[in-house]
Amino acid sequence: MKNQVIMYSTAVCPYCTMAERLLKSKGVEDIEKIRVDLDPVVRDAMMQKTGRRTVPQIYIGETHVGGFDDLSALDRAGKLDALLNPVD
User: Fold this and answer.
1) Is the pTM of this model over 0.90?
2) What is the mean pLDDT of the chain?
3) CATH number reported for the structural domain that contains residue 44 in this entry
């Protein structure tokens, strides 16, 4: 059972695109995207939840991964697969 992936993003965001590409290369089919550029309330909620202003902000399951650089670092460290595909 794969962990759910949620990504806070905007319409024009190269880092969001790169994050999505990396996740898809790992077999993630379904990314729930929450657009923060459409509603300031949603952006405020993201900032409250993550403590960050920038997008993407990525959650895998209950874990706040952070942005694209954080996601990429997890992958390079060999820890992304385990987060995406937890062994119960």
Assistant:
1) yes
2) 95
3) 3.40.30.10
